[in-house]
Amino acid sequence: MTQTIPPFLPGWSTRRIILATLTVLAVASVFWLLYHYRLAVFILFVAVTIGIAMQPVVAWLQRRGLSPVLGAILVYVVLFGLLMGFGFLVVPLLIEQVTTIAASLPDYYQSLRELMISSRSRLIWRLGQQLPSQPPSLSFSAHLPTSQPAVSLTEEEETLAAVIQVMSYGNWIGWSTFVTLATLLLGFHWIIEGQRAVRAILLLMPMGWRDEARDIFAEIEIKVGAYVRGQTLLCVIIGTLSLIAYLLIGLPYALVLALIAGLMEAVPWIGPTLGAVPAFLLALSLDPMLAVWVVVATLIIQQLENNVLMPRIMDESVGVNPIVTLLSIAAFGSLLGVVGAILAIPMAAIIQIFLDRFLIGPAAVEQETPAGRDSFSLLRYEAQALIQDMRQHIRNKELIPDEESDQVEEKLEAIAADLDSVLAQFAPSETNL
Predict the structure, then answer these.
(1) What pTM was computed for the model?
(2) Assigned domain for 8 exists
């Protein structure tokens, strides 16, 4: 008696298994290509993001009589002017302060360690005891092999080493210049030809997908542009306020510390706190009273940001869920390093759009449209409207957890869905109308 072996995937035909396998292979290939050519993806994505962020300014100039090309050129001229001014005025001072910090870091480390060891708190004292007596060396020479004794180099060898070092620096500067110029040129091209590129992509899609894809592209353009502009403005404002506060407090290296605070502003929730940690540690190593003033200044800046800046710059229509941003930074940063962390900021806005549209947005609720105009159909319309309102409220609610309100909202949505299904059973069909 022969036994039939049950199929591995019951209900799956051979064609469906092959299609599923090809789909998995295609997705894996796409991720491999993205990782392998991550620099090209980085250049393209940053260029498109720059183009999207600059598009409203170019459109404003176009409404005042300038052509898109002249408007884009004017925007780039202003941008280059600001960057050149920053480079001439700020970068030399920044390099000087970074060099001084690197040279003075061991002294600050020793002062901080001695302060922790002399603390009356047992926890702080224990942490101070666990710290090494000397900080890890930041010099590249510390990582060189030391098996061979040091020998003095001849004049020719020193010249050759200097030439090699200059060539390596020149290679890095040349490559960085190429990446910057390529990104800016692609961004300029997207400002001029972006809409035409979107239309070309839409023509490659099936007819039934084009309307929804067009809406998604438009929403991405609006939300990503507003989010990047708002986040950049917040970083600049917080960095400027931090610089003013650190100068008033009397902290050394205020420019470097303010730059760190401004950059960390892009990280939600923990970013402002992490941005103030270097200033706090430096102040603590100098004078504990300075550290208190750093904490006070940080709290004032955060209150100003939360109550004044955020409602005016990153309103609800622009803001991105902080959880989505943190997960994006963690995921893309672990995969692509610093490049991924930079990509994560605009990618968070794009991920938020797809989550809102296909997972928790009203469009994700698949409901049958009532066919008639009787009382049952009217009740179904109202029940479905209630479900959509509930989902919209859940999407826009505050992130502070409230178990009681969450349970009430879930029960109300379930009651409305049950009412809609009951009314669907008693509603007259289209054939009886």
Answers:
(1) 0.66
(2) no
